[in-house]
Every structure is written in C-alpha cells, then in structure tokens.
Amino acid sequence: MSLVRRCSRTACGRPAVATLTYVYADSTAVLGPLATYAEPHCYDLCAEHGERLTAPRGWEVVRLSDPSAPTRPSGDDLEALANAVREAARPHDRGADSRGPQTADPMEVARRGHLRVLRSPDS
Questions:
Q1: Rounded-to-integer distance, Cα 16 and Cα 33, Å
Q2: Tell me: the pLDDT tens digits for 72-100?
Q3: Close Cβ partners of 71 (under 8 Å, ≥ 6 residues apart)
Q4: pLDDT score recorded for residue 48
Q5: Smallest Cα–Cα separation from 32: which of 2, 61, 3, 74?
Q6: Residue 95 dihedral angles phi and psi, to the nearest 5°
C-alpha cells in the first residue's frame, strides 16, 4: 500500500497536494490543503490539476491557502526588515547603554563592512 496519495484525475499518477470538495447547496467548489485522510466524496488533486481547476458556469471556486506553504512577504514585513537592517547598521554609543559601563565588553579592533574583529575581554 502506498503512503503517498495520488491525484484523483484519470491517468495522473502525480502526488496529491490539495483536496477538492463541493458544496452543492451554494454552487461552490472548495479547493484547500490536502485533507488528513481520504474521504469518499472528496477529490485529491496534484498541483497542476489544482491550478487548472475550473467550475461549471454559475459556480464559484474558493481556493483556501495552505498555512504551511510559503507566503509572499507583505509590505509590512519588508518595512520591518528594512527597519531592522537600518537599526543594526546604526553606530551605537557604548557609553549610552542603560546598563551602565561594561568593563567585560570585548573591544572592537577592526571593521570591514558589516564585519567586526573583536578583542577578547581576557586579553
């Protein structure tokens, strides 16, 4: 017995990645992430057949996103990343640290771009 579920389309042997169900009362086809287990009135589809899915005239196709699938970064994500990079690149005043003077803090010996050479606090 195969542990990988296959696409329900005839003559397609690719692994299934999505499950298709129908809500006849609402004239809706729902394509979502692969169901935990196979059910008799659902259809497992491979990526290609899932993308090409169309519904009969008058029906609506609802495509649910897979939470485990990689998502495209939003504008907020990109802005947060840019702010983090700017903050990391900003020179820091060692004396302005709220924890007071740090005698065991390693000293910066040299700098090349974003890389720093630090002296050990023991030397």
A1: 10
A2: 667 777 788 888 888 888 776 655 444 44
A3: 65
A4: 93
A5: 61
A6: -75, -15
Sign of dihedral through CA atoms 44, 45, 47, 50? negative
Read off the tokens for 82.
């840019």
Cβ atoms of 14 and 44 closer than 8 Å = no
Residue 45 near residue 35, CB atoms below 8 Å: no
- How many Å apart are CA 22 and CA 26, to the nearest integer? 9
Entry pTM: 0.52
Reported confidence tier of residue 14, pLDDT bands at 50, 70, 90: very high
* DSSP code, position 49: H
